[in-house]
Amino acid sequence: MSIAQNTETTAKLRCISCGATPDSAGQDFRCTACGDLLEFFFPGWTLDQLDGAKPRRHTDPKPSHHTDPAALKSLWLQRRSSRDALDQSGVWRFRELLPHIPNLEKHALTLHEGNTPLYHLPRCARATGVENLHAKHQGMNPTASFKDTGMTFAASSAHQGKFRWVACASTGNTSASMAAYAARGNMHSLVLIPDGKISWGKLSQSLDYGALTCQLRTDFDGCVQILNDLVRQKPVYLLNSVNPYRIEGQKTAAIELMEQLGWEPPDHIIVPGGNLGNSSAIGKALVEMRELKLISRLPKLSIIQAQGANPFYRCVHEFGGKKLEPMTADTLATAIRIGNPASWKKALRVLQVTSGQVEQVMEVEIAAAKAEIGADGIGCEPASAVTLAGLKKLRRSGFVKAGESVVLILTGHLLKDPDFTIKFHRGDLFTESRGATEATQAKYLQRAPIVLDANLAAVIAALDAAERNS
Ligand code: F0G
After folding, report:
1. Nearest ligand 1 atom to alpha carbon 416
2. Residue with CA closest to ligand 1 atom 10
């Protein structure tokens, strides 16, 4: 069984290694010739063919990609005041830069994803010495993580392909997002997650959205293996980020970011690295935007991993990008507890073309950075906080300079993993074997709740003590 390529116009599938251009993808979304990943490319986007952007509605019978940069920018702005559900989505608003899905009006599954805020981080700016420091908060999506931008697009493709079942392996956010969009499209969803290694917030989402949720006695990488075998035997549609539709949808976070910055790219964008789909997507969008002259230069895209789950860091720093050695991953930032990232070659390309860096950060650095982002009134889940921890390292190494502009991509909401937060503030997060000594450095950020008798004097005493210490 094969999945038809949903493009009538210019987007085509291509293998990232051997360059084969198949008309359709198998259910595992891998090249049948060499087994590597597929990606979409847009042969029609040659810059000598600019023919002026004409507004393209999703109901147009024969859409085409028009690529005049000024006209596209104005069209996307106009859509912000439209009442059309697709125009209100921060993903579908940019549909000119995405492959076409036939009969979109019937198949688009949208929860008004995207449209996420870009916040200045004043305290983090002072702490890092980078005044122009912003966070694009992808945790402000409908299911509270960045996954929704790719999921709206890929789940719509599954719907268009009339799939009854969609499936993913996940550390929790992909599964929550997939289950929500499957529910919207009346599809069944199968979730494979590592038993005991995802946060309750994420698990509870997939239960409420109605997924068949299997907690496997293995890690994320073990779940991926089983899912890959499953999709070869059963007609289920794979919604992990090896699915190139996911990557296309996730590109829109970068497009929206550039729009928010008045199409003036920052010097640096910093993202967490797990399975490496997100960095690949953001990098792809940046390159395409530059090709289309929507932006005039590329920001440096840097990728940060947790030290206990750092196969990509090692790939770059130990093996010169020649190979990725899978590892058994371990980090309290469970979203990025991944030892064999599928999209490492795509991410490597992005790193090279944007001249970014890859860094690793310790558990205590992640916990401290998370509390610092929280203290700016924003908050995020642990995996997102690696970006600030990484920025501090990139400042120390001189790669990021004080006068430069930096955008951190925060991938998940603070409330995704309240256990981590509460343990950190109570001082219970780190054990003897896991960073308890270093954790003393982050003590000043801890704000444990105080249990008091129910009387006014006790509360006033607590208030006065806090005032003295502030
Ligand atoms: N941040 C969060 C909050 C995540 O959930 C993930 C990945 C990442 C960062 C890393 O992004 O994989 O594209 O490099 N979560 C996946 C999941 C793997 O199953 O939810 P990546």
Report:
1. 3
2. 274
